[in-house]
């Protein structure tokens, strides 16, 4: 499915590919990616932008809690997959 788990993986992949990023950058890119999927017909609808931003925020907090990223004010730094 395209639920929260799938979305969290997208957040994780986005942060990993960038190395150093910000919440705003990750959220904006995922919103653009989802809009492109809607336009291509691979996803039925674009969720509310506020909902997407909230999910990004939640996913980043989980990644921080399990030690995969560091958050310092607005900066996000990829640390790696847990061993």
UniProtKB/TrEMBL annotation:
Family statement: Belongs to the E2F/DP family.
Annotated protein name in UniProt: E2F/DP family winged-helix DNA-binding domain-containing protein
Keywords: DNA-binding, Nucleus, Transcription, Transcription regulation
The keyword Transcription regulation is assigned to this record: yes
UniProt domain E2F/DP family winged-helix DNA-binding: residue ranges: 1-80
UniProt entry tagged with the keyword Nucleus: yes
Gene3D superfamilies: Winged helix-like DNA-binding domain superfamily/Winged helix DNA-binding domain (1.10.10.10)
GO terms for cellular component: nucleus; transcription regulator complex
Source organism of this protein record: Chlorella variabilis
Any coiled-coil regions, as ranges: none
Highest taxon of the lineage: Eukaryota
GO molecular function, one term: RNA polymerase II transcription regulatory region sequence-specific DNA binding
Biological process (GO), any one: regulation of cell cycle
One Pfam assignment: WHD_E2F_TDP
InterPro entries (UniProt xref): E2F_WHTH_DNA-bd_dom (IPR003316), Transcrpt_fac_DP (IPR015648), WH-like_DNA-bd_sf (IPR036388), WH_DNA-bd_sf (IPR036390)
